Amino acid sequence: MPTWSVYMVRCGDGSLYTGIAIDVEKRIALHNDGKGAKYTRARLPVLLVWSVMMKTATDARKAEVDLKRLTKSEKEELIVNA
User: Fold this and answer.
1) How far apart are CA 14 and CA 66, in angstroms?
2) Predicted structure pTM score
3) Which one, out of 17, 23, 41, 81, has a CA that is 20 to 30 A from the CA of 32?
4) SS3 for 18?
């Protein structure tokens, strides 16, 4: 059974993007190749700044939604305190 992760990347413009993946390193490479999310394609390069492993895809999706509801300053605090 694959392990899912929730991750945040810092985009070239300083913004943060949150996503989920089974293989985070592969997903980051896809983002940087311009084959990731539309949001990141326009803000390359991206750098992984935070990730956490989850037990299931459902858990990862729920955590992603929760993270996306945070303000940027709350996300920055999460990154610093990781």
Assistant:
1) 21
2) 0.93
3) 81
4) strand
**Beta-carbon contacts of residue 39 (< 8 Å; ≥ 6 apart):** 11, 17
Instruction: Tell me how far apart the alpha carbons of residues 54 and 45 are, in angstroms, rounded to a whole number.
Output: 26
What does the chain come to in residues?
82
Distance (Å, whole) CA 60 – CA 46: 20
Query: From residue 31, how far is each of 19, 20, 58, 62, 65 by CA, in Å?
Result: 11, 12, 22, 22, 20
Q: Report in angstroms the alpha-carbon separations of 76 from 1, 9, 32, 51, 81.
A: 31, 11, 21, 13, 9
Which domains, ranges and CATH numbers included, belong to the chain?
4-80 (3.40.1440.10)
User: pLDDT digit string (tens) for 55-78?
Assistant: 999 999 999 999 999 999 999 999
What whole-number distance in Å separates Cα of residue 46 and Cα of residue 28? 7
